[in-house]
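FIELD: query
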Amino acid sequence: MPPVPVLVIIAVLFGGSFVYIYFMNRKRKESMGKYNDPHIYNQAPQFMTELLSGRFAAIDKQMQGAPVHAITQCAYITSLSDKAKAAAGTAVKTLAWAAVGVKARYSEADHAAYLVLSGEDLHYIFFEEGQVKEHLVFDRGRLMTAAVGSLSHTEKVARMGSVAGRNTHKLNLDIEGKKVDLIYFDTLERYPDSVLAYEKNAMDTMGKFKLMGSYFKDKLYAAYPHLSN
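FIELD: result
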């Protein structure tokens, strides 16, 4: 029996890969489309409760009983000085949040950061290898003076690992004269232990993650209309 030509093997493999990618993209669109349904959107609080009682339990624990009204992924803060961190810490009203100094820079691939809306307060929680390393609270007073920003070309290049391929939104805050940038995304992407959503029901999980990002923006903009963009 003559050997199968290499070109035939390549063609078969290429065709199989194309079919696989086609059906995966189709499945992804179907899953994501399901979560664009207004009826599904109304279930966002329920989905959020499920996430916070599961793989996102570390965030719920870190909130120490404070309500979580919305949550999304964000980039790590690189412009926060010790003075600014101390000032942000004074926004805490009754709870003692963890306050551990951050390093100069982090790798987005190894860590995870979130913005959590709790009442009128916005919490920034940073996880390094599954452990909380930073928890700051920005109260209504600071958020009322915040403004919508845009990523400069320099920022896009410098923070390529954090913002590449993502729909990003930026808030500019002033803390004791120090400019602090909050860059957040319109979806969740990874768990506090830094693991991406690669699992059996990954498509469904990604749909919920995207819904969480949309829900966060709606809740944030409802509370602070001047921060919408």
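FIELD: remark
The chain has nine helices and seven strands.
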